[in-house]
Amino acid sequence: MKKIDHQPAKDLKLSQVQGFLLYLELERSLSINTINSYAFDLEKFRIFIEEQDLNGFEDVQDTHIEKFLAQLKKEYKASSTARLLSTLRQFYEYLIDTKTYSIKLNPLEFFDSPKLSRKLPDILTIEEIEKILSQPDVNISLGLRDKTILEIMYACGLRVSEVLTIKTSNVLYEDEVIRVIGKGSKERIVPIAVSTLEWIKLYITNSRSTLAKPNSEDYLFLNWRGKALSRMAIWDIISKYSKMAKIAKKIHPHIFRHSFATHLLEGGADLRSIQEMLGHADISTTQIYTHVDISYLKQVHKEFHPRG
After folding, report:
1. Angle (nearest 5°) at CA 232 between 230 and 237
2. CATH class of 126-304
3. What are the tens digits of pLDDT across the range 77-128?
């Protein structure tokens, strides 16, 4: 009988990585960019364990992780190291769950990610938001479109990519919600203010109908050629009206999302509800807004309290 050669260690490692990446795509529906980041991290680790003359991922010990961390510290900043360690933790959990090895304990279990200093996001006051929203000339087609875009970004706290992919059929007027396709193609339902729905209706009737061409797709927001808007177009719209409103802060599209979340929190909304509306997979991402809220409270205290 012909002897079947064992697969080389390198090929085995590659197949395990590929299985994990396929799991991320099919089971967790992560985006291509995110999967590529995971692939980059795992390739770096695979090269490292080969340099240590290890046969596979199952041979990794605490001393190897310590050495790998020391290497990362020289090459990467803390945020990149934290991301890479997160990738490895998830990869080993996958190997344990799929019983690829006999290992039962994640070798990353007792290694902490580096402490990250979280920069509080910039936000706009309600007055600044209102000032920007009042700038577009709604008597012209593109002005009405721009006004509707700004309204929907603040009313729903959407990412730029989510605004670009809204279709006319995603707006559910009677239910007063909008169906949004977020990161990793995950769908969520976000409440929308009645006043914003009115702007959408007005835009569809008086503006979109003039922008749409016979070959236009069903995207809600179109450019003057009848095509879907680009990311840069949203940046230009926000920059234009922020300058017109004479807002001194550095304005970017995400500032509307940050302001949406912070104003909800200040108004008494609970963190879980805000997490759902923002489409955050992990509530720790949403918790940064509690720090923004505390900063706001301190500012109010300093301004209005006799001992402030």
Report:
1. 100
2. mainly alpha
3. 877 888 888 899 899 989 888 887 777 788 887 777 666 555 667 889 999 9
